Amino acid sequence: MPASKKDIRNKKNKALEAAGLRAPLTQSGVPVKPPKQAYVCTVCKISLTMPQQIKVHTEAKHSGKTVQECFPGAPTA
Ligand SMILES: [Zn+2]
């Protein structure tokens, strides 16, 4: 009997699991995305994740400050 698609997929998943590379799945079988790194503004304590938001926030709310002053360690995009 030829291997079914399911068998092939299971075999692949087993190999990935053995290598520690398989993404954890939710109960519905959807891969869990790693949580996004959030950066907190040192001035107003708002929490942002997108480099673009961080840049816009700094320019709009704290003109005169740099992105690194408001969000130390944040990527500057
Ligand atoms: Zn701020």
From TrEMBL:
Q: Which domain of life is it from?
A: Eukaryota
Q: Which InterPro entries match?
A: ZNF706/At2g23090_sf (IPR026939), Znf_C2H2_type (IPR013087)
* All residue ranges annotated as the C2H2-type domain in the record: 41-62
This protein is called what?
Answer: C2H2-type domain-containing protein
**What species does this protein belong to?**
Rhizophlyctis rosea
